[in-house]
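QA checklist item 7 of 12: single-chain prediction sanity check.
[x] sequence parsed
[x] length recorded as 364
[x] structure emitted
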Amino acid sequence: MNEYFKKILTDGKNIAKISDIFYPCYVIAYDRKHIYHEDLQSVGVMITSLDGEVLLCTPAEHFLDEAAALLKMYSNSEDKTSATTAFIDNLFRNNVKDTSKFNSFIKIFWLDLTGNHINSTSTLLNASGATNFIYKVEFPEGVNVDCDIFNAETYDDLPSKISARLAKIEELGGTISFDRIQSDCLTQNLRTIDGALPIILANALLLKYSKSISSWAQIIEELNAQNPLGYRIAENSPVYEVKIARFLQDAAMGMTPEKPWSGFYDADGGQIVVKKDGDIVCYHIHELNRFHQYLLNATRIEQPSTGEDEDNPGHIRLDPKTGKPKKPFLFGWLYQENGKYYLKINLQVRFKAISNKRKLRNSK
């Protein structure tokens, strides 16, 4: 696991350090004579991935000692990468697997912008059956569609089978409208953030596949043009951008599709990015404008595997060993239920490498 930390110490290109902004910490100093606030042996420093996986846990006392040693090495050496590597190695020598020994934690969310991810994945919102958006499909009177034939004819088309199927529905004179989210929990969580989010994200998913776009900038531009919720949009109005940014913020701060979301964050939440030169860039929850813009630039909608059987399009692909669905998401094809046509599209939000051309806007 410590190799993972070493790999991601590469420059985040357009991540800018703001020198005149400082962030509060719980433990501000420690030496052998004085303990500030509480016994540090009962406090753990926990580094987790955005999906909650514990990557490292160590006593705060050990972490602060190693951090002090790292700062001393930085002042005496130009080889900051080697110094940081030694720091990580020393932390992992005291990686605590049993976290129950700590009474409280200082939590660090580790964010990788470089594409070097554990198991090649780094998602802000993970794909699951809970993130399926269900759309009702209606064809003109007299148009009868055989789902098996429809799915087979559109399976191999580019740029994606979902894009091909949306285009085929339009070609047949059909219309597609958002019906519901498969998960009642995710529906309620989104409404807790903003009552309009289910409809906004449903339209964003359609735009991804009908327009073959995935960046939030492009999707928001199309949402402003189409204005599905009928807002009074003045020139450069940020209404859709603001609502999507709030969704990304809450997903980054712990909202998941499977657990009810209260809307309250862990104390002093934020994201910390460590750069190659040792600078630490912090996107804190108290600076929402920069944090929102960072998330809008750093994430995109991505299509996970549909779990469709390539030999029998429109049907579940089963694992030959277990007989169970190979991918449980079960979306992306036309199907009938109670005599009506439906199509499921899955929402997954993933981090991406940020281009030099994308600059974060400073908070105003």
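[x] summary fact logged: The radius of gyration is 24 Å.
[ ] second reviewer sign-off
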